[in-house]
Amino acid sequence: NAGVTQTPKFRILKIGQSMTLQCTQDMNHNYMYWYRQDPGMGLKLIYYSVGAGITDKGEVPNGYNVSRSTTEDFPLRLELAAPSQTSVYFCASRGLAGDNEQFFGPGTRLTVL
Amino acid sequence: QKEVEQNSGPLSVPEGAIASLNCTYSDRGSQSFFWYRQYSGKSPELIMSIYSNGDKEDGRFTAQLNKASQYVSLLIRDSQPSDSATYLCAVEQAAGNKLTFGGGTRVLVKP
Protein backbone atom coordinates (compact mmCIF):
# COMPACT_ATOMS: atom_id res chain seq x y z
CA ASN A 1 0.00 0.00 0.00
CA ALA A 2 1.94 3.04 -1.26
CA GLY A 3 -0.56 5.65 -0.03
CA VAL A 4 -0.35 8.91 -1.98
CA THR A 5 2.42 9.20 -4.55
CA GLN A 6 3.49 12.29 -6.49
CA THR A 7 5.76 12.80 -9.45
CA PRO A 8 8.07 14.48 -10.13
CA LYS A 9 9.83 15.30 -6.84
CA PHE A 10 11.57 18.35 -8.27
CA ARG A 11 11.14 20.40 -11.42
CA ILE A 12 12.48 23.64 -12.85
CA LEU A 13 10.36 25.38 -15.46
CA LYS A 14 10.95 28.40 -17.60
CA ILE A 15 8.36 31.18 -17.65
CA GLY A 16 5.57 30.30 -20.06
CA GLN A 17 6.18 26.55 -20.06
CA SER A 18 3.50 24.08 -19.05
CA MET A 19 3.59 20.88 -17.04
CA THR A 20 1.45 18.33 -15.26
CA LEU A 21 2.02 17.25 -11.68
CA GLN A 22 0.90 13.68 -11.15
CA CYS A 23 -0.87 12.36 -8.06
CA THR A 24 -2.04 8.80 -7.45
CA GLN A 25 -3.56 7.16 -4.38
CA ASP A 26 -4.19 3.46 -3.82
CA MET A 27 -6.50 3.73 -0.80
CA ASN A 28 -9.73 3.98 -2.83
CA HIS A 29 -10.35 7.43 -1.35
CA ASN A 30 -13.15 9.55 -2.77
CA TYR A 31 -11.71 12.92 -1.86
CA MET A 32 -8.51 14.31 -3.32
CA TYR A 33 -6.87 17.70 -2.91
CA TRP A 34 -4.11 19.85 -4.30
CA TYR A 35 -2.35 22.36 -2.05
CA ARG A 36 0.54 24.71 -2.49
CA GLN A 37 2.87 25.75 0.32
CA ASP A 38 5.05 28.82 -0.01
CA PRO A 39 8.15 29.14 2.23
CA GLY A 40 7.24 29.63 5.90
CA MET A 41 3.54 29.52 5.16
CA GLY A 42 0.64 27.16 5.63
CA LEU A 43 -1.13 25.20 2.93
CA LYS A 44 -3.42 26.87 0.42
CA LEU A 45 -6.05 24.76 -1.35
CA ILE A 46 -5.85 24.97 -5.15
CA TYR A 47 -8.47 22.44 -6.32
CA TYR A 48 -10.24 19.46 -4.86
CA SER A 49 -12.39 16.55 -6.00
CA VAL A 50 -15.12 14.61 -4.20
CA GLY A 51 -15.08 11.76 -6.70
CA ALA A 52 -14.30 10.77 -10.27
CA GLY A 53 -15.62 13.34 -12.70
CA ILE A 54 -16.24 16.00 -10.02
CA THR A 55 -13.81 18.83 -9.30
CA ASP A 56 -14.11 22.24 -7.70
CA LYS A 57 -11.99 25.31 -7.08
CA GLY A 58 -10.25 25.99 -3.81
CA GLU A 59 -8.77 29.20 -2.49
CA VAL A 60 -6.07 29.82 -5.16
CA PRO A 61 -7.13 28.15 -8.46
CA ASN A 62 -5.89 30.76 -10.96
CA GLY A 63 -3.25 29.42 -13.33
CA TYR A 64 -4.10 25.77 -12.66
CA ASN A 65 -6.42 23.11 -14.00
CA VAL A 66 -7.35 19.63 -12.81
CA SER A 67 -9.18 16.56 -14.00
CA ARG A 68 -10.39 13.42 -12.23
CA SER A 69 -11.14 10.65 -14.68
CA THR A 70 -10.45 7.83 -12.20
CA THR A 71 -10.68 7.38 -8.44
CA GLU A 72 -6.92 6.89 -8.20
CA ASP A 73 -5.52 9.81 -10.22
CA PHE A 74 -5.81 13.56 -9.78
CA PRO A 75 -3.32 15.42 -12.02
CA LEU A 76 -2.69 19.16 -11.67
CA ARG A 77 -1.93 21.10 -14.85
CA LEU A 78 0.05 24.34 -14.90
CA GLU A 79 -0.39 26.37 -18.05
CA LEU A 80 1.94 29.28 -18.85
CA ALA A 81 4.08 28.95 -15.73
CA ALA A 82 4.87 32.16 -13.83
CA PRO A 83 7.44 32.87 -11.06
CA SER A 84 4.53 33.27 -8.63
CA GLN A 85 3.87 29.55 -9.04
CA THR A 86 7.21 28.67 -7.49
CA SER A 87 6.17 26.60 -4.49
CA VAL A 88 5.92 23.12 -3.01
CA TYR A 89 2.82 21.28 -4.18
CA PHE A 90 1.16 18.63 -2.04
CA CYS A 91 -1.53 16.21 -3.06
CA ALA A 92 -3.74 14.67 -0.38
CA SER A 93 -6.59 12.19 -0.20
CA ARG A 94 -9.31 11.33 2.29
CA GLY A 95 -11.77 8.51 2.62
CA LEU A 96 -15.45 8.65 3.49
CA ALA A 97 -15.10 6.73 6.74
CA GLY A 98 -12.89 7.31 9.74
CA ASP A 99 -11.90 10.58 11.32
CA ASN A 100 -11.63 12.70 8.16
CA GLU A 101 -7.84 12.50 8.14
CA GLN A 102 -6.18 13.74 4.97
CA PHE A 103 -3.16 11.70 3.88
CA PHE A 104 -0.46 13.66 2.10
CA GLY A 105 1.92 12.76 -0.67
CA PRO A 106 5.64 13.63 -0.44
CA GLY A 107 5.29 16.83 -2.47
CA THR A 108 6.69 18.33 -5.66
CA ARG A 109 9.11 21.23 -5.38
CA LEU A 110 8.59 23.50 -8.40
CA THR A 111 10.75 26.45 -9.38
CA VAL A 112 9.78 28.79 -12.23
CA LEU A 113 12.60 30.92 -13.60
CA GLN B 1 -12.76 34.38 3.94
CA LYS B 2 -12.44 31.63 6.54
CA GLU B 3 -9.29 32.12 8.60
CA VAL B 4 -7.13 30.08 10.92
CA GLU B 5 -4.52 31.98 12.92
CA GLN B 6 -1.40 30.68 14.62
CA ASN B 7 1.63 32.32 16.14
CA SER B 8 4.47 31.64 13.69
CA GLY B 9 7.10 31.27 16.44
CA PRO B 10 9.66 29.97 16.80
CA LEU B 11 8.54 28.58 20.12
CA SER B 12 11.70 27.56 21.92
CA VAL B 13 11.34 25.09 24.79
CA PRO B 14 13.92 23.15 26.80
CA GLU B 15 13.93 19.39 26.57
CA GLY B 16 11.46 17.85 29.01
CA ALA B 17 9.28 20.97 29.24
CA ILE B 18 5.72 21.49 27.99
CA ALA B 19 5.19 23.18 24.63
CA SER B 20 1.88 25.01 24.30
CA LEU B 21 0.56 25.90 20.84
CA ASN B 22 -2.55 27.94 20.13
CA CYS B 23 -4.87 28.34 17.17
CA THR B 24 -7.96 30.49 16.61
CA TYR B 25 -10.46 30.15 13.79
CA SER B 26 -13.20 32.29 12.29
CA ASP B 27 -15.71 29.74 10.92
CA ARG B 28 -18.13 29.35 13.82
CA GLY B 29 -19.78 26.34 12.19
CA SER B 30 -16.61 24.24 12.05
CA GLN B 31 -16.88 20.87 13.78
CA SER B 32 -13.59 19.09 13.05
CA PHE B 33 -10.12 20.21 14.06
CA PHE B 34 -6.71 18.75 13.35
CA TRP B 35 -3.08 19.19 14.30
CA TYR B 36 -0.47 18.21 11.73
CA ARG B 37 3.27 18.01 12.28
CA GLN B 38 5.59 18.91 9.42
CA TYR B 39 9.32 18.33 9.51
CA SER B 40 11.44 20.54 7.28
CA GLY B 41 11.24 19.40 3.67
CA LYS B 42 8.59 16.77 4.43
CA SER B 43 4.84 16.49 4.06
CA PRO B 44 2.38 17.09 6.90
CA GLU B 45 1.39 14.13 9.07
CA LEU B 46 -1.64 14.01 11.35
CA ILE B 47 -0.90 13.84 15.07
CA MET B 48 -4.27 14.74 16.63
CA SER B 49 -7.88 15.25 15.69
CA ILE B 50 -10.57 16.66 17.99
CA TYR B 51 -14.30 17.14 17.50
CA SER B 52 -15.81 17.86 20.93
CA ASN B 53 -15.19 20.57 23.49
CA GLY B 54 -12.66 19.63 26.14
CA ASP B 55 -9.41 17.73 26.15
CA LYS B 56 -8.22 14.76 24.13
CA GLU B 57 -5.01 13.00 25.09
CA ASP B 58 -2.80 10.75 22.96
CA GLY B 59 0.53 9.87 24.50
CA ARG B 60 2.51 13.06 25.12
CA PHE B 61 0.05 15.14 23.09
CA THR B 62 -3.13 16.80 24.38
CA ALA B 63 -5.51 18.74 22.16
CA GLN B 64 -7.95 21.17 23.74
CA LEU B 65 -11.03 22.60 22.02
CA ASN B 66 -13.31 25.48 23.01
CA LYS B 67 -15.88 26.08 20.28
CA ALA B 68 -17.50 29.01 22.09
CA SER B 69 -14.18 30.86 22.06
CA GLN B 70 -13.24 29.44 18.63
CA TYR B 71 -9.95 28.25 20.03
CA VAL B 72 -8.00 25.01 19.75
CA SER B 73 -4.66 24.25 21.36
CA LEU B 74 -2.01 21.54 21.44
CA LEU B 75 0.16 20.66 24.42
CA ILE B 76 3.31 18.61 23.99
CA ARG B 77 4.48 17.18 27.32
CA ASP B 78 8.05 16.05 28.02
CA SER B 79 9.21 17.74 24.80
CA GLN B 80 11.96 15.94 22.92
CA PRO B 81 14.39 17.25 20.28
CA SER B 82 12.53 15.04 17.80
CA ASP B 83 9.45 17.22 18.39
CA SER B 84 11.24 20.12 16.68
CA ALA B 85 9.03 20.79 13.67
CA THR B 86 6.31 23.08 12.38
CA TYR B 87 2.84 22.35 13.75
CA LEU B 88 -0.09 23.17 11.49
CA CYS B 89 -3.59 23.73 12.82
CA ALA B 90 -6.32 22.74 10.34
CA VAL B 91 -10.05 23.40 10.62
CA GLU B 92 -12.67 21.67 8.52
CA GLN B 93 -14.97 24.24 6.94
CA ALA B 94 -18.60 24.12 8.03
CA ALA B 95 -19.62 23.23 4.48
CA GLY B 96 -17.54 20.08 4.86
CA ASN B 97 -14.93 18.30 2.77
CA LYS B 98 -12.28 21.04 2.90
CA LEU B 99 -9.66 22.08 5.43
CA THR B 100 -8.35 25.57 6.10
CA PHE B 101 -4.79 25.57 7.43
CA GLY B 102 -3.10 28.04 9.70
CA GLY B 103 0.36 29.32 8.87
CA GLY B 104 1.98 26.96 11.37
CA THR B 105 4.00 27.36 14.55
CA ARG B 106 7.66 26.41 14.45
CA VAL B 107 8.76 24.59 17.60
CA LEU B 108 12.40 24.22 18.62
CA VAL B 109 13.22 21.84 21.48
CA LYS B 110 16.68 22.48 22.87
CA PRO B 111 18.60 19.66 24.61
Q: Can you describe what's shown?
A:
The complex is a heterodimer of chains A (113) and B (111). Chain A is an all-beta fold and 113 residues long. Chain A is built from no helices and eleven strands. Chain A has strands at residues 4-7, 10-13, 19-25, 31-37, 43-51, 54-57, 64-66, 76-78, 87-94, 103-104, 108-112. In chain A, the strands form two sheets. In chain A, strands 2, 4, 5, 6, 9, 10 and 11 form a seven-stranded mixed beta sheet that branches. In chain A, a hairpin with a 5-residue loop joins strand 4 and strand 5. With 111 residues, chain B is an all-beta fold. In chain B, strands 2, 4, 5, 9, 10 and 11 form a six-stranded mixed beta sheet that branches. Chain B has a five-stranded antiparallel beta sheet with strand order 1-3-8-7-6, with no helix packed on it. The mean pLDDT of chain B is 94. Chain A binds chain B through residues 31, 33, 35, 40-45, 48, 50, 58, 90, 99-102, 104-107, and chain B through 4, 6, 8, 32, 34, 42-46, 49, 88, 92, 97-104.
What is this structure's SSE topology?
The complex is a heterodimer of chains A (113) and B (111).
Chain A: E1 4-7, E2 10-13, E3 19-25, E4 31-37, E5 43-51, E6 54-57, E7 64-66, E8 76-78, E9 87-94, E10 103-104, E11 108-112
Parallel strand pairs in A: 2-11
Antiparallel strand pairs in A: 1-3, 3-8, 4-5, 4-9, 5-6, 7-8, 9-10, 9-11
Chain B: E1 4-6, E2 11-14, E3 19-25, E4 33-38, E5 45-50, E6 54-58, E7 61-66, E8 71-76, E9 85-92, E10 99-101, E11 105-110
Parallel strand pairs in B: 2-11
Antiparallel strand pairs in B: 1-3, 3-8, 4-5, 4-9, 6-7, 7-8, 9-10, 9-11
